[in-house]
Every structure is written in C-alpha cells, then in structure tokens.
Amino acid sequence: MGPVEKGFTLLEVVVAVAVLAVGASVLLYVASNSTNRVYQSESRISALQLIKRKVYDIDANGTLNGFTIEEKDKTFDLGVKERKFIVKDKNGKEVLTFYYYEK
User: Fold this and answer.
1) For residues 81 and 101, is the Cβ–Cβ distance under 8 A?
2) Which of 48, 66, 73, 91 sees the fewest Cβ atoms within 10 Å?
3) Which domain of life is it from (predicted)?
C-alpha cells in the first residue's frame, strides 16, 4: 500500500467554491432588496409628513424634501368633502395617495 495523501481534491474545492458563490449571491440579493425597502419606507414617511402638514394647514407651499403634493377636492351629498392628496417624488413618480374625508 502507498502513502496516504492528505488534502482536498480538485472536485471538492470546486464544489466548495460553488456553494460559497451561491451563498454570497443570496446574501447580496437580500441586502439590495432590504436597501430598496428602506428607501421606499423613508419615501412614504416623508409623504405622510407632507400630507399631515397639508391637512392641518401647517405648510402651504406643498413641498418637503423634494416631494410635491397635488390636492383634489370633491364634494358629495350631505356636505361630505373628499380631499385626495397625491404625493410625488423628485422624479414625478407617485409615492402615496391619501384620501381624507371631512364634513
């Protein structure tokens, strides 16, 4: 019998590298998806702050951190008034639509 060789075969190394590559790609996907969700959450929070200012007449100009707000009013029977607020980001993309009803 010949001497016992120690170490890894080329096939074992290739399989280990492939497993590590798959694991790393999954981690990168999760990290990028989380970053995107954080940005969306921050955008919605800014949009809600802008709507709150508009509803309570705190800020009359309708802009906050580059977001703009568009307001549409409609009156229904019995004097119910619908106020629709559409918040758009810097690129004009709709971030949030908020309906507010008052009598």
Assistant:
1) yes
2) 91
3) Bacteria
**Phi–psi pair at 96, nearest 5 degrees:** -155, 140
Site of tokens 């949030």: 96
79's torsion region: left (phi>0), alpha (psi -120 to 50) or beta? Answer: left
What CA–CA distances, in Å, run from 42 to 39, 50, 59, 64, 67? 5, 12, 20, 13, 12
Q: pLDDT per residue over 6-62, tens digit each?
A: 888 999 999 999 999 999 999 999 988 898 888 888 888 888 888 888 777 766 566
Euclidean distance between CA atoms 75 and 23, whole angstroms: 56
| CA distances, 94 to each of 35, 45, 68, 85, 98 (Å) | 19, 14, 10, 11, 11
Tokens of 94: 């709709």
d(CA 31, CA 78): 51
